Prior knowledge:
Distance between the termini: 30 Å
Structural class: mainly alpha
Radius of gyration: 20 Å
Order of helices and strands: HHHHHHHHHHHHHH
Shape: globular
Oligomer: single chain
Number of domains: 1
Amino acid sequence: MRKAWVYFWLLGLIWGSSFLFIRIAVENHDLRPVEVVFIRTAIAAVGLGAVIAWRRVPLPRTRRMIIALAVVGLGNVVAPFMLITWGEQFIPSSIAAVLQSTAALFALVVAHFMFTDERMTSKRVLGLMVGFVGVIVLFGDKLGQGTLNSGFAGQVAIVVASMCYAFFTGLGRKIIQSDVQPIVVAFGTMVTAAVTTAPFVFFTEGGFTPLLHPLPVNILLTVVLLGFFNTFIAYIFFYEIVRALGASRAAMVTYIVPAVGLILGWLVLGESIGITLLLGGTLIMIGIAIVNLRPSQVYHWLRLRRATNPQ
């Protein structure tokens, strides 16, 4: 149990740093977004494949399951990874980290229509309203500049990526369920992403940038870390957390990721943390908390704090 909580906090730090790494890779157009997605998913696919071979985990053989994994891979990896990477060419990593956390809110809407045991309640509706007010706050200054500016487009891309995560995660649960092990799902989706993006990397005008001219060491290191730690290792940690702590506790990593993204963007890239970002991010986090936290959980947490800090 203790090891699972260590993994939990490490996962929050790893996933929170993804937005920083993506921003570094694409900010000066050293790499195209499709190249970043290809490299990170190819590294993750090789790593997950090695783990599956070592553990001798059976792979799906039916056409239905292979097609299902491909569909989830396109919607839950290719589309959101591309949208986030493209969007971060135009917006700070800190804003991207906060906006991407809205996936937890969109997931509620998707689950309401897909699963009979996850219907909307008044508490969830309230949480959604508060969270989306936070999104509107974050979009506020961009809306004032017109809808065609690149900053607005970048933020829209992150929100659409969150919608993809919500819908295709729910779809994956619906069509795959318990037929295959989670690590096989991750492997299948990463293979789909790498295979899908490869033609756009190698056979389009410009070719594969790292093969044509040397990349700055920091860019090359960034994208390799993004593939190995933030994609491959992160998925291993996530499924270990789900196995030990349950899916609901594992999902609470949502609270850590945007905070890490904010802090790293400020510390490493010097991104400003203005009142708009703080207010919008706070409202989104409050909305997610309203949706997920039960009053009994808050009560027990307060009792524990009082017992350990009697002053």
